[in-house]
Design a protein that fits this description.
Distance between the termini: 73 Å
Number of strands: 0
Structural class: mainly alpha
Order of helices and strands: HHHHHHHHHHH
Largest sheet: none
Length: 167
């Protein structure tokens, strides 16, 4: 690594201000890109002179603040849960549903498996007798376990468990 003089730092900052990329400047001056970043931002060698770059738009963004707790922000509403179940049940891809609703695919997967389900959710093991009967009837009609799970808003594993139990 090269030790930069104050004149080098000024030239580096001027070239960066003119639009050159940090990686290109790092190669020219024989230093790491992280060193170029620290120099052009003024984190190091601020006293050497030359134009110091403004903070990036990402760094200037204020941090999101909310009066709600993290657990309250992460709680899914019953309306979102219902929409996820409806859209996935209709055959829409889980990733597409997640993107459209602004939630993670993992959340969609959790909803569909019964692990999550809004404020009044029930666990996947809490299938009522009618749901168990529909699962058995659909299986007898030749539907796949995955298709049955989507239609019932539960997991394929739960469908398999119901079918194995036979009760």
């Amino acid at each position: 690594m090269a030790r930069l003089t104050d004149a080098d730092v000024v030239r580096l900052r001027e070239r960066y201000a003119a639009g050159e990329r940090q990686t290109d400047l790092a190669a020219v001056f024989g230093v790491a890109q992280t060193s170029v970043s620290a120099i052009v931002s003024g984190r190091t060698r601020a006293d050497a002179g030359g134009p110091i770059a403004a903070r990036s738009p990402r760094a200037q963004r204020p941090q999101a603040t909310s009066t709600r707790s993290a657990s309250a922000r992460n709680r899914l509403t019953d309306a979102v849960v219902a929409e996820v179940r409806e859209r996935v049940g209709a055959g829409e891809g889980r990733a597409e549903v997640a993107a459209a609703l602004g939630i993670s695919k993992a959340s969609v997967d959790s909803i569909m498996s019964g692990r999550r389900g809004g404020a009044t959710s029930t666990r996947a093991g809490a299938l009522d007798d009618a749901a168990r009967a529909r699962i058995r009837a659909a299986h007898a009609a030749g539907q796949s376990q995955s298709a049955i799970a989507r239609a019932e808003g539960t997991s394929q594993q739960m469908v398999s468990k119901v079918l194995r139990a036979g009760t």
